[in-house]
Amino acid sequence: MADASPTPEEVALLARHAGLELPAEYLRQLVSAYGHVRRMIDRLPLERSRDDEPAHTFDPRRFVP
Amino acid sequence: MTDLHFLTIAEASRLIAARKLSPVELVDTYLERIAALDDQLQSFVTLTADRARKEARVAEAEIVAKGPRSRMHGIPYCLKDIYETAGIRTTAQSKLLADNVPARDSTCQQRLDAAGGVLLGKNATWEFAHGGPSWDVLFPPARNPWNTEHSPAGSSSGSGAAIAAGFAPATLGSDTGGSIRGPAAACGIAGLKPTYGLVSRRGVLPNCFSHDHAGPLAWTAEDVAILMQIIAGHDPEDPGSLDVPVPDFVAALTGEVKGLVIGVPWQWLEKEIPLSPATRASFDAALEVFRDLGATVRPVSLPPLLQFDDVKRTIAVVELFTIHGKDLRTRPEMFGSSLRYRIIAGGLVRAEEYMQAVRHRTVLARAMQEAMATVDVVMLPTAEPAGRLESLPPESLFTRPSFTTAFNVGGNPALSVCCGFAENGLPFSLQIAGRVLDDATVLRVGDAYEKATSWRNRRPDLVAKSTA
Prior knowledge:
The structure holds two protein chains of two kinds.
Chain A: H1 8-17, H2 24-43
Helix pairs in contact in A: 1-2
Chain B: H1 9-17, H2 23-41, E1 44-47, H3 49-66, E2 76-80, H4 107-114, E3 118-123, H5 157-165, E4 170-175, H6 181-187, E5 190-193, E6 213-218, H7 221-231, E7 261-264, H8 266-272, H9 277-292, E8 296-299, H10 305-330, H11 337-343, H12 351-372, E9 377-380, H13 396-399, H14 405-410, E10 414-421, E11 427-434, H15 439-452
Parallel strand pairs in B: 2-3, 2-4, 7-8, 7-9
Antiparallel strand pairs in B: 1-3, 4-6, 5-6, 5-10, 9-11, 10-11
Helix pairs in contact in B: 2-3, 5-6, 7-15, 10-12
């Protein structure tokens, strides 16, 4: 499980990997926001069987002209 | 007779059909009222006055010649400014779309236009229906007509304010986590988040693909049913659209709720987000109305609210980043600070984490439908009465629990109606959620409640500011 309180340096690295070159002000916002997002994700139950199909099963009929 | 600007769709359409009311007169009434009062509410970001007068004249001629072709023929309406309108600026309240003029109407606009409705203009929203209230975006936020120092909630904020103020009898909003029901609650009107896929989102600027719903707001549940009759139905251009028959929503409004089984998720209301005493009293009183009408009230068990919020918000932050990633990378300063804060972390979430959230949505949706199968509807307040209009802490989207989001996760229909007024004059709200594709029952129950109570007789008391 990831750290619920990532350091600013860790967030800056993740941001660069995501293609975000942010000024300092926005980077501070990202550090704060990402902390909240991490806490949400870390609360998600993760124990699932291998064949547990996600909700958005692809239905090819929707794309027939 | 009721002031023209406070006529419901049902009332106005009857008068128009009987040739006792002119669509031109009705449109002029609304345009005059908007001109006199909307500086206090800022509920419209674009007015289409000339077009509305022209459409009203055409509608009048058609009705005189052949009679009305729908309950919306000659009736004015407005649209949240995320519904694309051909030739009319559609901004989503964002500097990024300040000059965005779509070439094509959204499906909902096409259907309202085909029904003979008269477009008055576009309503204020939160930026891209997600970030707000904001003072650093294209337009200022809308205000609550019951008290202009208070919020109309969001994100269909201008839509809710315009209906309550008597600026229009009909509008469409969108609801990804509660953005139709929240403003409906704050403004004391009726607003329906339909079953997921029942109303097309084609041409509606997205918030979060997997949870977005388009839907109506109006003064009464009956008017919401009239609007649903126009806008519901399969659209092959919306990949999430359901190809199912559209019921007769208006015919379903029998006023009958005898034998109805109402489930109340008490664990949400007493342990997870305890209600204020005043909101609890208003909710208890609403349940008593239903008991008197012959309904039964029993507890219903649902998964914890926090799980619904965590799943939806995790999915949303990623989908929002997917939509806005290019602009966040190249011109982040164009976003309002509220929206930027709420979406920028989506680029850092791993694909595996997104997929786990999508998988857990399945678990929650299944639990929701199993619980719904044991009752006819679930009831709870939509929200506490509206707070003051002020900047919210940006992290509030991630930390503030909601009574509405669970029904977006499940895809269930959910209606908000007014169930009284607090001591400060702001409305209380009752949320009625139903089984998937049983929107007609939800509307029937809301309509029965409105007709059994007197709350629809009270209106905000807006007065034009003196120009002397």
